[in-house]
């Protein structure tokens, strides 16, 4: 293997892993493939990620964190809580549709990886519901929303919109009427949150 001129970092390994997963799929991608793509020994990869499972968990977390990062800006935006809630839900739906539509091979790969990485998925869902909780708390504070338990309400909103962000529904996201169904569900939820 030819030595690489760039410093080997965890981020470079994760980028290479994503490419290897795209090319080979989760069943055939190996740490040796990642090392080969980077021009290093597989031992060098293991110095950053102790096991293949740890590497797969990290690449899954990185993929999920992209969505969380996009949405966090909406939570902090200086807009009324109803607008933030609508924008947040729409951005989540759009992000998931984009991931499924723009790179279906990688989306299918990550669907497999998220099934085997419960920790990363659990943390992702906790982060998303925490973001929703902050929006709902802001709505309660301004009197726009009525929620006795904003955290439980956030979980309910997240679950009620599952058809528009849970990967198991990905095939339905581009069907005719998906967008109007989404708007109808969000309208219903917002009406239910009003005092």
From TrEMBL:
Keywords: DNA-binding, Transcription, Transcription regulation. It holds the Pfam family TetR_N. Residues 30-49 bind DNA. Residues 7-67 form the HTH tetR-type domain. This is TetR family transcriptional regulator. It comes from Streptomyces lomondensis.
